[in-house]
Design goal:
Blueprint: E1 2-6, H1 11-22, E2 26-30, H2 39-48, E3 52-55, H3 62-71, E4 74-79, H4 86-91, H5 93-113, E5 118-124, H6 147-165, E6 170-176, E7 178-180, H7 199-208, E8 214-217, E9 229-230, E10 232-234, H8 235-247, E11 252-258, E12 264-265, H9 266-277, E13 283-286, E14 295-296, H10 301-307, H11 315-332
Parallel strand pairs: 1-2, 1-4, 2-3, 4-5, 5-6, 6-11, 7-10, 8-13, 9-14
Antiparallel strand pairs: 9-12
The chain binds nicotinamide-adenine-dinucleotide (NAD) and uridine-5'-diphosphate.
Nicotinamide-adenine-dinucleotide (NAD) binds next to α1, α5 and β5.
Length: 334
């Protein structure tokens, strides 16, 4: 069974390719490598011993996308391709709307034209905005505070409307919480460009000595220790969530939170990283980051009940695997 994976060379996409190949699917990747490198897919093949067919294309290009649908009998599409930096989306809204919305439209139209009735879409917990956690799938969505979040909410809406108009479709809208960690081989992981925005890649850079200290954004939230709380999920658990979503054939559009259901504060994460890897992470408390919310974690009952999927790995696993990959990365100068 052929699965088209757009953005398959990216952080979540590459780990999902591994889960798909290990579950017996054939994988076809469409990626323009604007935020990844083709050699990641070589690592995926090395880890699994299986082949990945790759198309270096921009998935906003309808002609190029359609040619993949013509060349292969596809069972489903997992649509990861898109831009993902919240801050950058505020400065480059048109790029974000163009890439993230147009890619979703092109993929959805191709699926309709070629009768590929299963789509799994990468959404984000960002769509919940600043509501009280735990976030539940049937909460009303608030306008998000940034164009990135809007592209996710709009893409969800596009795919939901498509399902209303065409009952053949089965669409899973997966709202990811905070994916971190890396494959246990240490051969693939997160590849942020420049100074990382996200917590875990920032911590691994401090651990390596590339950055002097972690800046913790605020310590007076209403949380266990005042620092921000998030629902971190191991990227391999997230990858398996996509396989579970593919196997669910329920018609219509269905939203699922993919998280662990547990919140971890920044200081708890720092402490776990220090203990597991036996490394000191110096930090400073600085001002809150603009647009941040204090607490964000998932209600994961629906994914457990309907997809028969639950995250298995804990914060310590995430810290161990993120650091293993960072060490490998510096040893081979990826
Ligand atoms: P990533 O940047 O590592 O991967 C995205 C991949 O898509 C990259 O390989 C990039 O080259 C490719 N791409 C982007 N635009 C493309 C286009 N027009 N045509 C072809 N390829 C294109 O990001 P990721 O962390 O793996 O995220 C994957 C998806 O999950 C994204 O849609 C992102 O918004 C969503 N998401 C990510 C997070 C997170 O924290 N990482 C959280 C929630 C949702
Ligand atoms: N954070 C931090 N310092 C950093 C990066 C992040 O204190 O250098 C905090 C941030 O305020 C939030 C948590 O870590 O409470 C997770 O942030 P990240 O950017 O990884 O995810 P998001 O905010 O998008 O959920």
């Amino acid at each position: 069974m052929n699965i088209l994976v757009t953005g398959g060379a990216g952080f979540i996409g590459s780990h999902t390719c591994i889960s798909l190949l290990e579950s017996g699917y054939s994988v076809i990747v469409a990626d323009n490598f604007c935020n990844s490198e083709s050699k990641i897919l070589e690592k995926v093949m090395e880890i699994t011993g299986k082949r990945v067919i790759t198309y270096e294309i921009d998935v906003t290009n309808e002609e190029q996308v359609n040619s993949i649908f013509k060349n292969h009998q596809l069972e489903a599409v997992i649509h990861f391709a898109g831009y993902k930096a919240v801050g950058e989306s505020v400065n480059k809204p048109l790029d974000y709307y163009y890439n993230n919305i147009l890619s979703t439209l092109v993929i959805a139209r191709a699926c309709q034209m070629y009768s590929v009735n299963k789509i799994v879409f990468s959404s984000s917990a960002t769509v919940y905005g600043d509501q009280n956690s735990p976030f539940v799938e049937d909460m009303n969505l608030l306008p998000t505070t940034n164009p990135y979040g809007e592209t996710k909410a709009m893409s969800e809406r596009i795919l939901m409307d498509m399902c209303v108009s065409d009952s053949r479709f089965s669409v899973a809208l997966l709202r990811y919480f905070n994916p971190v960690g890396a494959h246990s081989s240490g051969l693939i992981g997160e590849e942020p460009r420049g100074i990382p925005n996200n917590l875990m890649p920032y911590i691994t850079k401090v651990a390596k000595g590339e950055l002097e200290n972690l800046n913790i954004f605020g310590d007076n939230y209403s949380t266990v220790d005042g620092t921000g709380v998030r629902d971190y999920i191991h990227v391999m658990d997230l990858a398996k969530g996509h396989v579970a979503a593919l196997q669910n054939k329920k018609n219509g559009a269905h939203v699922y939170n993919l998280g662990t259901g547990y919140g971890t504060s920044v200081l708890e994460m720092v402490k776990a990283f220090e203990e597991v890897n036996n490394i000191n992470i110096p930090y400073k408390i600085v001002d809150k980051r603009s647009g941040d919310i204090g607490v964000c974690y998932a209600d994961v009952t629906k994914a457990s009940r309907e997809l028969n999927w639950e995250a298995q790995q804990n914060i310590r696993d995430m810290c161990r695997d993120a650091w293993r990959y960072e060490k490998y990365r510096s040893s081979v100068k990826v």
